[in-house]
Design brief:
By secondary structure, the protein is an all-alpha fold. The protein has a domain of 207 residues. It has 9 helices and no strands. α2 runs antiparallel to α3, α3 runs parallel beside α6 and α3 packs antiparallel against α7. The radius of gyration is 21 Å and the shape is globular. About 7% of the residues have low confidence.
């Protein structure tokens, strides 16, 4: 059929393309720097494993999102073909969930590695945290696979229509036969996002409490030691994470409200804003890591 691309479609695709390639460059930079350092020194610590895994997930996620947007604009009728929409939904659900949970694992790692508590269980975690990192990443992948299965199943039950709408074409807005299906999808996503958000908040509170105890033990005329500096640096990084999670969670609630009212323009702008959050989060990861920050400044 004749291709009909409106100015709204073109504008939306340009915005998504700019965000995608900016995010791909940033996350590709993270992955390349860590891989080069791994090859040179043949040493790969736990924090670098988490950052590498997160960077790879976001890079692939941005690639799939751009391909999805490109096909939605250039050839939207392919989404009537089974199982193309189901596969896209499952892949995007997998990588979105991976990003959320691996970011939460990063906050947990910072908390356990830096905070000082004398409880036996916490001491055990501090000793075993480096061995636990691969299992944490494996658990994140399993949870992401569960989300992918749910996304595939719910999309398979859905009926795609209103494809002439810009927001519907770019972000795959669904119109389903029954409200139970879309409600189940949002309920599962909300549970996963809320759980990860609570993990980040709990890690932040533990670090703040540890910093408060450490500061109280220090004498009034003593200088800050390395442990204090590590606490403050980690808290700043995790606070940025918490702000991003809070904004992302608010955006999810807005998507839920606008989705029930079929307000596609609001859905479009909220989704654009949520996609930009991952780019800012990756920048925070670069500037909070001395190796990545030094490599970025040297590259620029």
């Amino acid at each position: 059929e004749k291709l009909n691309v409106t100015s709204h479609d073109a504008m939306a695709f340009v915005i998504i393309t700019l965000q995608t390639f900016a995010g791909m460059w940033i996350n590709g930079f993270i992955v390349s720097v860590l891989c080069v350092a791994w090859v040179k020194k043949n040493i790969f610590n736990s924090i670098e494993k988490i950052l590498l895994f997160l960077g790879c997930c976001r890079f692939v996620d941005l690639c799939i999102t751009w391909v999805y947007s490109f096909m939605s604009v250039i050839y939207p009728h392919c989404f009537y073909v089974h199982p193309i929409p189901q596969i896209f939904s499952a892949i995007l659900g997998f990588f979105n969930s991976s990003n959320v949970w691996v970011s939460a694992c990063l906050c947990v790692f910072y908390c356990i590695k830096i905070a000082n508590f004398q409880h036996n269980f916490f001491i055990y975690l501090k000793i075993k945290i480096d061995r636990m990192v691969p299992w944490m990443l494996f658990a994140s992948v399993l949870l992401a696979l569960v989300m992918a299965v749910f996304s595939y199943d719910i999309t398979d039950r859905a009926v795609f229509k209103n494809l002439n709408s810009t927001a519907a074409k770019i972000f795959g807005t669904l119109s389903v036969r029954t409200d139970e299906h879309i409600f189940l999808m949002f309920l599962i996503s909300a549970f996963a996002l809320t759980t990860a958000f609570m993990v980040v908040v709990f890690s932040t509170l533990l670090l703040l409490f540890s910093l408060w105890r450490h500061k109280r033990r220090m004498q009034a005329n003593s200088m800050r030691n390395l442990n204090m500096d590590a606490h403050i640096k980690a808290i700043k990084t995790i606070l940025f994470f918490t702000c991003i999670y809070s904004i992302n969670f608010t955006g999810f609630i807005l998507l839920l409200l606008y989705g029930t009212k079929r307000e596609y323009l609001q859905i479009f702008f909220v989704s654009i804003f949520q996609h930009a959050l991952s780019v800012f989060h990756s920048l925070i990861l670069i500037f909070s890591n001395p190796k990545l920050k030094k490599a970025l400044l040297r590259t620029l």
